[in-house]
Amino acid sequence: MIDLPTPQDLVLDSTTRGVPPGISLHDSAITSEHWSPLDGSMTLPVMTLDQSVLLANTNHFLAFAKDEGVFLAPHAKTPMMPQFAASLVARGAWGATVANVQQLSAMQEQTISDIIYASPPGGRIGASHLAAAIGRRPASKVFVFLDSVETVDALHQALARVDGACAYGLVEVGFGRTGARNLAASIAIRDAILSTKGLIALAGVATYEAAAVVKDVDHRKTFDRLFKLVEETFLSVHDAVSNDTPLIISAGGSTYFDDVIRALRPLSKKYDVPLVLRSGAIFFSDDGLYSRAFEAMAKRGFAAPIARAIRPALSLWAEIISRPEPGLAIAGFGMRDAPNDQGLPVIRRVFRNGSDIGIGGEQLPVVDKLNDQHAFIGSGAVDDVRVGDVLELGISHPCTAFQRWNAVYATDERHVVQAVLRTHFG
C-alpha cells in the first residue's frame, strides 16, 4: 500500500477550493461526506488524485527499478507531500530528492535518512541556510549538487560554522542548465571538495539529462556526450578516494530513464555503486508532457512495458459557465488552477447531470486558451456542450499542477472523495 498524507485534524472551510460555502469540518471527517466533483456537492474547479491509479503506477515503477537493478530517490518537489515521500522509502526507495532548503526541511521532518539536494546551493546566503538545515537534523545524509569551486567554498565555510554539520558532495555535470561542462571543471570541483577535509565528503557524480535536450536535435547524440562526461568524472572521483568510500551516480530519469539506465548501468555495475534515479512525476504522470515522453519511450523499445503501464492519476474538474456565441464555450478554471507551461489541459470527458454524454476521441472539445480564471474552448464538438456541463480534464506537467493547490482530493474509482491531501509548497 501507499501511505497518502493522513488526516491532521485540519479544518476545511470554503476558503479551500472544493469546500461548499457554510461548511466547516475536520479533514478526518471528509470520507463520510461522500463528496464528488460530479454531483454538485463540491465547488468547482477542483483537482483530484485517483488513489488506485497512483498505487498501480507506484507498484509498476518500484518493481521496474528493482528488476533493472537501479535505485530511486523520487523528487519530492512534484507533490510536496512529505508523507508520500516517506512511504516510498518505506517500500524500498533509496531516498528522496529536493531542490531547495524549504523542501529539505519538509523531508527531514519525516526522518528520511538519504536526501539528494538536486541543485547547487549558491553562494553565502544559500549555503548558510543549507548548512543550518543540515545541522538541525544531522542523522539525515544530504547529498548536494556542486558545480563550481565557488559553491564548494561557500558550503565549506557555512558548514564550519555549524557544530556537527557535514554534507556529501556530488560533482554535478550537465549541459543546458547547471553542471560542470567539461572534465577539467569537474576535477577542479572534486579537488575543492577533497580540500574540505571531510566537512564535505566526496560522494559521487550527478547530472540532469533532460536539461541537455535541445529542440530539433537528436537527444541521443547529446546524451552520448553527457554520459561520457559523467563516466569520465566518475572515474576521476573514484580514483581520488579509497576503495571502501561509498559513492553514487545519480541522474534525473523521469522522461529518459531508459536512456539513463542503458548508458550508466554498466558503469554502476562495474564499480558496484548505486545508480540512483530521481524520477518523481512518473508516479502521477499526465495527459501531456509525460504522456508524450512515455509514448516516445515505448517506441525506443527498452522500457516499453513500463512506459505503457503508467497512467495519469490527476484530474481537473470544472463547469461550463458560459456559451456566449456559437463555437465558443467558457469553463470556470484558468491558469490559477491548471498548468500551461508544457501544454494546455485536455478534456477527457463531458458530464451532464452526473452522466458522461458520450463525446469521445477527436470529437471532444479542445481548450484553446487560458486566462487567470477562465478557459476558452473553441475547437472540436464545442457546440455539443451546455452551461452547467462538468468537464473532466487531464493536465500536462504534474510538478506545476500540484503547486497550484494546497488541497488535492483523493478519490476512488467512482470519483468519490476519500481523503484530502495537503501539499507543502511553503
From TrEMBL:
Superkingdom of origin: Bacteria
Coiled coil: none
Domain D-serine dehydratase-like: residue ranges: 313-412
Signal peptide: none
SMART domains in the record: D-ser_dehydrat
Gene3D superfamilies, A to Z: Alanine racemase, D-serine dehydratase-like domain
Protein name: D-serine dehydratase-like domain-containing protein
Source organism: Pararhizobium polonicum
